[in-house]
Amino acid sequence: MPIEFIGMIGSKDSESGPHGPDVDPEFTLRSARVHEDAGFDRVLIGHSSSSPDGAQIAAYVAARTERLGLLLAHRPGVVEPTMAARTFATLDHFSGGRLAVHVISGGNDAEQRRDGDYLDKDDRYARTDEFLDVLKGAWGESDGFGHEGRFYRFDDFRSEVRPLQRPRVPLYFGGSSAAALRVGGRHADVFALWGEPLAQTAEQIAAVQAAARAAGRSEPPRISVSFRPILGRTEDEAWERAYGILDTIRQQGTAGSFFDRSRPPLPLGPSASPENTGSQRLLAAAAMGERHDRALWTAPAAATGAAGNSTALVGTPETVAQALLDYVDIGVTTFLLRGYEPLRDAEEFGRSLLPLVRQEVERREQPALVAG
Fold first, then answer.
1. CATH number where 116 lies
2. What is d(CA 240, CA 121) in angstroms, rounded to the nearest whole number?
3. What is the DSSP letter of 207?
4. 236 part of a folded domain
5. 167: preceding bond cis by omega (within 30 degrees)
6. E strand segments, 54-170
7. Which pLDDT does position 106 carry in this prediction?
8. Is residue 206 in a domain?
9. Residue 141: CB partners within 8 Å, gap ≥ 6?
10. SS3 content of the chain, % helix, strand, coil (to 5)
């Protein structure tokens, strides 16, 4: 199976702090084209209670790129699932079938409440479960249908638009809690994890597969893992750059979280106590040590309270490529890679990192030559 690489774009340069316009079309387009030229398969367009509308960013990018796939983050509870179904299906047509949706239930109560969502974590996942039932029903029903559930109720829903892709738009899903595993194991085409050590990642993959079996699925979700690679021409150069980035993180109090820096949704720093299980797991890995396996570095997670994707792979392109292949060996099929210097790093990943991983995966998948 080919390896999928996902980058990340937004409406402005999230690494440059709160200065500059909140919507910078020139930067957004440049970032999208850099990722397309670098050979990324998709780009994630994130979601927060303060960020510009991701669907409009996706539409803007789709109209100005040729091949690049779009992974639109969506938080159930913001809009009704019937409206979301029409929005996604319409965007799938205008993008030429390049859309996927990344479903996030939300991991911080204060951040949720900024959009008027006062459900607790377990109820948010229960709502996501129902939301996805309705979403898939809306995409698949040719006749009108109604629904009466715990969170949503409607009569005789009809839609003139269904996804261009068949059978539907792919669904990615993020989370690490028991509730996330249950819901994602049932619905996700791709289950997204943050970058933990290999042993812990293998445990998470096994848990996702068990949840999928419990939901009656014969094929489990594919697995995505997120990292922030830091490359150098030599190992020493890579680590020198890594510690320079760490110094900047400690000075600024953030590692480029997607959330608005002027009003961070989580307390940052080593004393932070995140509510979401994914961040807690990253901090637990950091507590076990700063370096793990071949190239995993947890210091940025410890420095920020693991506010988002915050573990790094550090080394030469060859070292980091081998580290990614270690994850392929335990069942990972997708990598979300985001650099600390987004444009520069995306270009570098395309030159030196992505080709190494793809070439080795292709080599492994070639039929063995029989001698004689």
1. 3.20.20.30
2. 40
3. H
4. no
5. yes
6. 69-74, 99-103, 145-148, 153-157
7. 82
8. yes
9. 157
10. 45, 15, 40
In this prediction, the residues of the chain whose per-residue pLDDT falls under 70 are: 14-19, 253-273, 368-372
- State the Cα–Cα distance between residues 243 and 310, nearest whole angstrom: 14
8 A C-beta contact, residue 14 and residue 52: no
Per the document, the length of the chain is 372
4 touches 41 (CB < 8 A): yes
Q: Please give the residue range of the domain that contains residue 175.
A: 4-228+315-365
287 located within any domain = no
Alpha carbon distances (Å) from 219 to 53, 142, 211, 212, 216: 33, 26, 11, 8, 9
Q: Return the closest-CA partner of residue 310 out of 332, 341, 288, 279.
A: 279
Q: How far is 20 from 341, CA to CA, in rounded Å?
A: 17
Residue indicated by tokens 């080709």: 355
State the helix-helix crossing angle for 178-187 and 121-140, rounded to 10 degrees: 10
In a domain, 348, yes or no: yes
What distances in angstroms separate CA 99 from CA 70, 142, 163, 258, one per listed residue? 5, 21, 9, 20
On whether the pTM is more than 0.90, the answer is yes
